[in-house]
Design a protein that fits this description.
The protein contains 15 helices and 10 strands. By secondary structure, the protein is an alpha/beta fold. An 8-stranded mixed sheet has the order 1-6-5-4-3-2-7-10. Helix 6 packs across helix 14 and helix 10 packs parallel to helix 12. The longest helix is centred in the N-terminal third of the chain and has 42 residues. The N and C termini lie far apart (153 Å).
């Protein structure tokens, strides 16, 4: 009985031991599988297969062109743009289309002629013409009336022509004796003929004297100036681009010696684009050119260089030096101070016009570089003339302030009419 119990106990213990060993083994396997699964989860799929097929696959595009099968293995071709031609980057601003290159080429051409778009005005900006250099705030040479204020500098607003006052002045200015003081010559490209007589200046009802002062910018006086019977300009000015303000017609140009010498020097420039006077002179074709006799040789050479035919009225010394005495006589008659020094070209022009013009209108005569409110006014309405504004309005032997007061007095007395500001004023 005891032996049977002992055998039963031993068998039971043996079965328990086997069960424990099997259980332990199974748990160990489960634990190993769990560890293996965790390892796979944390480290991702093994890289060995990829490395065996494409070594350094992830950076292959940096060192070699794509190989067969390469695109299939790399996920979604994330860096395919690294090896495509640069033109594909245009897809940022233009969707891909057929003949894409041709379309973009046309687009670049169009941007050269269309108005500047936002963001590219610093790259492509229309250049200003020489006629726009003196545009000022509140002014425009074409459309807008100037915003200058002249105050006490303006001529009298109440004006009425006085024929008797003009006669009194003319009785003095005829002493200039233009018939002898202006000697007529033809120079340049023309055919000499006994029948080819030089026309006389004649006598005119209305004359426009056009000065070069910047005050004429934006005045819109062009048509008004051209409506006169005779148009006189000073010192070979620029007309093209300023027709709305200064008109188109020219019947006479009165120059000083410095202008002729600059023009003569300019005509010899090898680089013809630097010569600012050739086009100016051609625009004055058919007009009288009044200049000092001392520069007649320079004028002849200029006319030959430019292939122009000019009618030159060269002033004798009597007109150049005698004008000051005549101006002083007129000033004294009107109770003004005596005129000192040599007269300016503008003063000579005004006194000459009283001889052969019945109604004289002055435009662009304003020697000041600021208005009554200290707004800047260009000394000349056109650039490139190499003339600096006068210092204290006195240029060498000229007194521009005194001459301006002299003109305003002639205006006040109804001998001539000054126009300072917009057309119609």
């Amino acid at each position: 009985m005891l032996a049977h119990l002992t055998e039963s106990t031993t068998c039971g213990a043996s079965r328990q031991m086997k069960t424990f060993i099997v259980s332990t083994t199974l748990l160990s396997l489960v634990y190993i599988l769990i560890l293996f699964a965790l390892r796979e989860t944390l480290q991702g799929p093994p890289l060995v297969p990829t490395l065996e097929i494409h070594p350094s696959q992830e950076r292959s595009t940096d060192i070699r062109p794509p190989q067969d099968g390469d695109i299939e293995i790399r996920p979604q071709q994330e860096r395919i743009t690294d090896i495509l031609p640069p033109q594909e980057k245009f897809t940022d601003i233009l969707p891909p289309q057929d003949a894409d290159i041709e379309i973009r080429s046309q687009q670049e051409t169009i941007t050269e002629i269309r108005p500047p778009q936002e963001g590219n005005t610093k790259i492509r900006q229309p250049q200003e013409s020489s006629s726009e250099i003196h545009s000022l705030p509140g002014t425009s040479a074409k459309d807008t009336k100037p915003a200058w204020t002249f105050g006490d500098l303006a001529p009298s607003s109440s004006w009425q022509f006085d024929a008797q006052a003009l006669k009194e002045v003319r009785d003095i200015t005829v002493k200039l004796n233009l018939k002898e003081g202006l000697q007529r010559n033809r120079v340049g490209n023309f055919t000499k003929s006994k029948k080819d007589k030089i026309p006389k200046i004649g006598h005119h009802d209305t004359c426009a004297l056009v000065g070069n002062g910047g005050v004429i910018l934006g005045s819109q006086c062009g048509e008004e100036i051209d409506s006169n019977d005779f148009v006189i300009r000073i010192d070979v000015p620029v007309i093209h681009g300023h027709e709305n303000d200064v008109g188109k017609r020219t019947d006479m140009v009165i120059t000083n010696m410095k202008t002729v010498k600059r023009m003569h020097e300019s005509s010899h420039f090898e680089n013809r684009s630097q010569d600012v006077y050739e086009n100016r002179m051609k625009s004055l074709s058919g007009a009288y050119l009044v200049a000092d006799k001392s520069v007649l040789q320079e004028i002849e050479e200029v006319a030959e260089t430019y292939r122009l035919s000019l009618i030159v009225l060269h002033r004798t010394e009597r007109i150049r030096t005698g004008t000051g005495a005549i101006a002083s006589e007129i000033a004294k008659m009107n109770g003004l101070p005596r005129m000192h020094g040599l007269p300016s070209t503008g003063l000579i022009t005004v006194l000459m016009s009283t001889i052969f013009c019945d109604h004289t209108h002055m435009y662009g005569f304003f020697p000041f570089t600021t208005d009554a409110k200290n707004n800047s006014i260009p000394y000349h309405y056109y650039p490139g003339d190499y003339v600096n504004p006068p210092l204290h309005h006195t240029t060498g032997s000229h007194n521009m302030d005194r001459e301006y007061d002299f003109f305003r007095d002639l205006h006040r007395r109804g001998i001539l009419k000054m126009h300072v500001g917009p057309s119609g004023e």
